């Protein structure tokens, strides 16, 4: 009898731990289903439109659009000050008191909007003057292309504040609705400018601006109760102390994404930049899955990370399942993408088909970085995130300068993927020092090896000749391997996901905005 007591006690403890795991995973799966449905729907709409745009825009015109948006997005990092990240993290320090939460959100958002408005005016006034005094002539004129793209990015960042509050409050339905409004308005306005009016790049950029401004007005109206709340400087100081160290990180992270475009434009043509950027757009399917998971997992992670050892064990089990799930999706994307792009794209863009698998692999590494960095954010060691991004950026820059002159857009894709791998490794090492989470590292590494094999296969000419038959065989084989390697972790995710999809989440935490 005495021998049975420890076993019974262990069984009771295991059951007590499993129940919270299932409860947390159920919430995660419900949110992921909603965020994922919205993001996939929006991306599917964008892909459909890209196929249409590719028949009306030449590759060099795509290059103009992407270069203008790259400059605008980089500048908006300094206009946004990463306040939306502070909203998502510090929300949980004030959500116990509805009035205090309202004051905190209102203080941070009001400052953010005022700062962005001033930054926009300054850039629009000085941008043309600065560009005209550059030693090397710019490939894309500041007026009207870059100026309109900056205005669009500013309006979109204002909408992002509303989305950040929805995300922290775990309200996926209004988040999805507002995102869908922006996507539909953008698609309609761009179709009008590019297809109906035949205005080329300016038609698309102007369409995006109109859609972004209208959506921001909707978002601002929905935040009116927050914008009229009592302003408190202490809340603003808390937000800036968290967010400002993230600004250089975001600059480095964005530089990691776009440096290859500038280097490619220097050594090659705008047409090659356009093809490469289009490949990135398709490769970002992996990013939208990552984004959906991050949106669902981020608030739950922050809730649980302050708990004891049982919570840490729970985070490790679910986090490992998510990592293996992402590897499986990446393999599927890499194996499917070449044949789909050959079927869908205009012949002028078909060179993008061999690039997309590399980009998907890079976004897989970035997904793992996003998963691991939550421990760093929980510890409020945001300066460490900048260090990781700086190292990855330097690696990316060096590899691009070494590879792009010889291999062009292929070299750019290789360099970026390697840099994302460095980023993921750095995030894991530092995260385990601050808030250690017991990830199943051997299983995750083995799955990455399988994904590397899938990537290698997509680059072989002999494989592409027999791609129809080979695709079915390799997809089944790859997913079977991943299932065998990570069956315990995936079972946690898939069982709960199946149960959750049968019933919608009915409750939201009190005090949501």
Number of DSSP-assigned strands: 0
Structural class: mainly alpha
Whole-number tally of structural domains: 2
- Silhouette: globular
What is the radius of gyration computed over CA atoms, rounded to a whole number of angstroms? 23 Å
Give helix % range: over 70%
Average residue-wise pLDDT: 76
SSE order, one letter for each helix or strand? HHHHHHHHHHHHHHHHHHHH
Outline of the structure:
This protein has 513 residues and is mainly alpha-helical. The chain contains 20 helices and no strands.
Protein traits:
2 domains; disordered C terminus; mainly alpha; 513 residues; 20 helices
Please, could you describe this protein's structure?
- The structure is a single chain.
- With 513 residues, the chain is mainly α.
- It folds into two domains: 54-243, no CATH class; 245-503, no CATH class.
- Helix content is 84%, strand content 0%.
- It has 20 helices and no strands.
- The chain starts with a helix and ends in a 12-residue tail after the last helix.
- Mean pLDDT is 76; it is low at 1-19 and 499-511.
